[in-house]
Amino acid sequence: PTTIFLKDYTPFGFIIDGVELTFRLAPKATRVLSRIKFRPNPDATDKRFFLHGESLTLISAAIDGKSADVRDVDGGIEADVPDAPFVWEAEVEINPQDNTALEGLYMSNGMYCTQCEAEGFRKITYYPDRPDVMAAFEVTIEGNEKVLLSNGNPLSQSQGFAKWQDPWPKPAYLFALVAGDLLNHPGTFTTKSGRQVDLNIWVRPGDENKCAFGMQALKDSMKWDEDVYGREYDLDLFNIVAVDDFNMGAMENKGLNVFNSSCVLASPETSTDGNFERIEAIIAHEYFHNWTGNRITCRDWFQLCLKEGLTVYRDQQFTADLRSAPVARISNVLALRGRQFPEDQGPLSHPVRPESFQEINNFYTATVYEKGAEVIGMLKTLVGDAAYSKAVDLYFDRHDGDAATIEDWLQVFEDSTGRDLGQFKRWYSQSGTPRLTVREDYDGDTFTLHLSQSTAPTPGQDEKLPQVIPVAVGLLSPNGDEVMATQILELTEAEQSFRFEGHATRPIPSILRDFSAPVILEQGIDKTRRAFLLAHDTDPFNRWEAGRMLARESLLASITTGAAPDAAYLDGLGAVLRDDTLDAAYRALMLGQPTQSELAGLLHEAGITPDPEAIHTASEDLRNAKAAAFGDLLPVLYQDNQIDGPYSPDADGSGKRSLANAALSLISRTDGGALAAEQYAKADNMTLQLAALSCLLDAGAGKEQLAAFEQQWHDDRLVMDKWFSLQIMQAKPDQVAEVTKRLTQHPDFDMKNPNRFRAVMGALSMHHAGFHHKNGAAYALLAEWLIKLDPVNPQTTARMCSAFQTWKRYDPARQTMMSAELDRIANTKDLSRDTNEMITRIRS
Ligand code: DPP
Ligand code: ZN
């Protein structure tokens, strides 16, 4: 396999002045005719005329009307072309029906759709399939389907025919085509300059009642981007299509977003509050790409974080504005710690801007997305809100229509603020999670914080240089008043001290407020201090964090010494739960505790081999201790957070349901599931129904309800995904592999559908104690299915290999078993490039 390097970038030898495509749709033999105007690129040194192409049958090719002599080369074709403008015409045949990889043009439930990011367009026709080649597209579709869609605005439409024109030059990865017997949920939006935009969500018949929420989220996103970033939509039409078979969550194709149906379809009966929130965020994310990604795209795929980090940051801001900012921030940090930290601390660690890859699909990672967003947040913290807005405005002014780089992005900040961002840029090039260590001093007047930073070596990077870390700090007095409001300390050296004068009593610092940098904070403070912060911190994130740390320390003590759950933690938590000035969603988050895989990671970092069984036992014990300690409080929380009246997925309602459901899950540990059964019986929305079922299964009950649930929902694929997952998530560790295996034999288990595959195999790999059960059955089962899926869908297979990324954390017996499974995958004949790269990196 070839490795591609950032440093080898060269521009394409030609510029495109226009692309015309004609699709003659047929399931097994679609013809694609292309007519592309090329001219030599004066800025390019490499003049080779190379077009990408994969799995294409070439019917004919012509240059300026004369049959062209094309040479097959690795990954595409070459031809000799004039040193002047010319027209390339080609006809190819492709087979959408058999395209199970879901890249390029494929079929899902009888409808045609496309996925071109990152490199799928080359499976549609011969083309310079690279993001720095931008062109205006005109697309003709001939097909029997009722609805024929492509990017941009419709030029003409009649039975079996549609012509679309996208006036905005775009890279091929933003191309899209959809054809099917679809229905639309319509809407309109009037932009700030008074232009009316038609909006549609296109779905398969039967799903029309699940579009209203997504439509509202789209309108909210359009308004928000105008209000906050000054960005207006730029076409007369914006289409969203829901597709059942989709590798990603959604795709921001110009004017024609294609969504995994799980990320757009919603109704109270079938979707949980979590689904609604996720849908709102993803609709916003894809819409925001119209400016950060589409109008300004990436020069090459190494710059992926330029659009993804920024767009995730923007969708996080949107959620914080629409819902509760502290709750949103805590959720983002939980996701970062849950997915990005393990990646950055294991064999798959890579910089936010990677410097090499074999298969770019493998770099749509938590590091590029979530850490990429954290980097934008730090930049904003460092320069301040006003300077951030000014710099981003300059970015849009200067680079509209460009395929840009991280250098371009940082340059607008340097130019508009005068600040040197040379050191800050290390956040893009250095991988690994920095560790921030704090020591305190006090001399009767001056309080001093000694901060130091270090980052452990990561694959390919032995030496780490100090990064710029914005550390948000506030000071509290011993009675809990804030004596210094939040300040940003800029840590730029390996070690630095910050002095705070004029404190007659020793203040208590609250450090890394709002999680101001994606680092591991080592504070060396005791329980009393944490309990104080849990009770008094004025920063909601750090208040939550104090509770989280107490829970963490309690669990680690139970795991390593068998200690009982920490009474100080339970006391402090009880006080917070009783404080009904705090919103319900926040209190529900307080009731949570570190995941078992997070604990395994912490033990590993501390040089202790994690024992999944002991971790599981300690986690269960802590939950049981909460159930016992809050025996009187939990029914009150449950009762106080019941909602009369119709379901609404807003922040207030979902917060109440999350607190009531969190209480229910603890109550179910003592009442055998009686209250959960009651809730199940009367639930009129999926949030309550699913939570009740989950509690019942956890309590070892719920057989009847599980069957009833299947009966009720067997026709709804998205709900059935939950039914599959839940049984695995709630299985006892020694049952997990067996339950999973049984579910793979269920007639509705279909590995070709990525949602279903992930519902089952994802749940298997995320059940820490079950996946790592000492009998090794889960390792073998996952490997077996990854091997089966690889020839069908390499992208999803490769993504799921990361379940094994932490294999070196565990004891020799488990390592040997996981290593054997990795070998088995690696030795599979004709393994895809995607999976091969992942397994090679994981084993290294
Ligand atoms: N569709 C994916 C996303 O929006 C890749 N661009 O993040
Ligand atoms: Zn994105």
UniProtKB/TrEMBL annotation:
Coiled coil: none
InterPro entries referenced in this protein's UniProt entry, alphabetically: Aminopeptidase_N-like_N, Aminopeptidase_N-like_N_sf, PepN_Ig-like_sf, Peptidase_M1, Peptidase_M1_dom, Peptidase_M1_pepN, Peptidase_M1_pepN_C, Peptidase_M1_pepN_C_sf
EC id: 3.4.11.2
Keywords: Aminopeptidase, Hydrolase, Metal-binding, Metalloprotease, Protease, Zinc
Domain Peptidase M1 alanyl aminopeptidase C-terminal: 529-842
GO annotation, biological process: proteolysis
Domain Aminopeptidase N-like N-terminal: 99-174
Enzyme class: hydrolase
Catalytic activity: Release of an N-terminal amino acid, Xaa-|-Yaa- from a peptide, amide or arylamide. Xaa is preferably Ala, but may be most amino acids including Pro (slow action). When a terminal hydrophobic residue is followed by a prolyl residue, the two may be released as an intact Xaa-Pro dipeptide
Residues of the Peptidase M1 alanyl aminopeptidase Ig-like fold domain: 432-523
GO MF, one annotated term: zinc ion binding
Domain Peptidase M1 membrane alanine aminopeptidase residues, every copy: 214-427
Cofactors named for this entry: Zn(2+)
NCBIfam families in the cross-refs: pepN_proteo (TIGR02414)
Similarity comment: Belongs to the peptidase M1 family.
Name of the protein described by the UniProt record: Aminopeptidase N
